[in-house]
Each structure stands twice: as C-alpha cells, then as structure tokens.
Amino acid sequence: MSQEKQVNGVNVEQLFSTIDLIREKPEIAQFKFRATNDWVNGTHCRATVRDFYGALKEDTTRDPMAFEIDEPPVLCGNNLGANPVEYLLVALSGCLTTSLIAHAAAKGIEIRKVESRYEGEIDLRGFLGLSEEVPVGYQMIRVYFKIDADVSEDRKEELISMARKYSPVYNSIAKPVPVSVELDNK
Description:
The protein has helices spanning 12-24, 84-106, 124-127, 153-166, 168-174, and strands at 6-7, 10-11, 32-33, 36-41, 44-49, 52-54, 57-59, 65-69, 111-121, 140-149. By secondary structure, the chain is α+β, with helices and mostly antiparallel strands. It has 5 helices and 10 strands.
C-alpha cells in the first residue's frame, strides 16, 4: 500500500489526480456555492452555508455553518458578529492563503508558517448616501504576507503572485463579477 504524498497538509497525489480528471471532463469543474441570510434584529443577521453543487452532484454531507453578522456600536450595532466588510477580508484571507499553500504544495515547496494581515479602507459617506463622489465599498485593500520557508524572497513573491492569480475571492473582488439582486417571489 503506497503512502500518500503530503506537502503542507495537502495530498499532492489527490490534487494532481483531480486536475487530470478535470482536464478529461471539464464539466466536473462546475460548482455552485450557496448561502442564506436571516435578519435577526437591528444590524444583526445570521448567514448560513450548508449544501453546494460540485463534481456533478449535490453535496449535502456537511452540517450547516452559521455566521453571525453585526456592526460595532459606533455603526448602530451590538458587536454580535463581524460586520460584512470584515467577512469579505476573512474570505479573501482564506482564499489567498489556501491558493498559496496548494500551489506551493504542487511545486513541492514546504511551508513552515504563513501569516497574513488585511486592511481595508472605507469612507462611510458613500454608504450613508452623503456623497455621490465617494465609493460605497472598499476604496483600497492591502494584504501583507509573512512566509516561513526555505526558499528565496523571489520565490516567496512568486507564491504570492500565484495566490493572487488563482484565488477565486481575490479575482471576484479585483475583477468584479456581475451580481444580480432581486426580489424572490418563490
């Protein structure tokens, strides 16, 4: 029985098998992720993720996961959860890090530690409708990585570039996708 090859906790043989399978059958790569949201009170709401569609089938194998969403008191909330723009930074952090680790593993680069920090700047005059000139969302997001690995600084920069190139969340933000928002009559 062969031992599976793990690099950075990633099963590299499974990773390459998945890539090969998707090359043969591109339709396997089509996924649909879902979330629901229920308003609780004030600025507090609760989002839930559970099932998704991927690899040609519905996946209902995981328990629902809830995310408490609220604003800090200075923004009329009660700090019962992170606010939505903080969750955006969290999603970006998870996706960039996952992309970096998986691509490092595929290249056989062992990572001892990755730390990153995220800063997003927002001018609330846009959100509050006080200025048409001020964007409603983030005006700038900065990401800083620390990578502990036995590779050169250039190689670390290359890993960060690959994370940017292949992160779905980064690319959804940096190259916005169409978003439809409408009344659900079902």
